[in-house]
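Onboarding guide, step 5: your first structure request.
Type a short instruction followed by the sequence, for example:

Predict the 3D structure of this protein.
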Amino acid sequence: MTSRGRVLLVEDDRALVELLTYHLEREEFEVETTPDGEEALMMVRERVPDLVLLDWMVEGISGIELCRRLRRLPEAANVPIIMLTARGEEADRIRGLETGADDYVTKPFSPRELLARVGAVLRRVRPALAGEQLSYADIEMDIVAHKVKRGGETVPLGPTEFRLLKHFLEHPGRVFSRERLLDNVWGHDSDIELRTVDVHIRRLRKAINDGGRTDIIRTVRSAGYALDAEGAA
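The system replies with structure tokens like these:
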């Protein structure tokens, strides 16, 4: 049986862990669990999951702090995070999302609701999990083979340009500032200067626009960059 992806469940309620593990595994997800925030951080460093289900209140470091630290890890910067919490106040919800969570589920919730949220987040944030392929306009990316084609022709890309394009393909049309790209592609703790982002954007543009193709990367003055076929045309 092929796994739909690996889920790390960070939760200290044993009964809830058993319930969610049962339902996730029934939906063909591989599940790893821990009640401890510090251990969860170590587990992610050892083997990056496809999605993290994170309780707000866990042992060790808090769920909010763990979410913040995960977003600073280069290898986990784009891993979808759904926060599970009994805190239903709007301020708490906003705080969780601003920290880097992709969604927020308030307890009590049904396993069916959570599975629907998991599926929605994975489709939105990590479409590569559906078939290890990303595409937008005439650009196609094979995640596993590490190959990119535009208009059916192979585009040679360096590792950084590949990661940069992958990030854009996962969020087509969305404008990212240089700071956000630095966080998401290079990692929050990187010592790389902002102008380095511009250098790699130029390299990516040169590679995918070779042969006189339309520049599909749009520069938004004072805002950043976006993969936008309509806006760049």
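Each response can be followed by summary notes, for example: The chain is about 45% helix and 20% strand.
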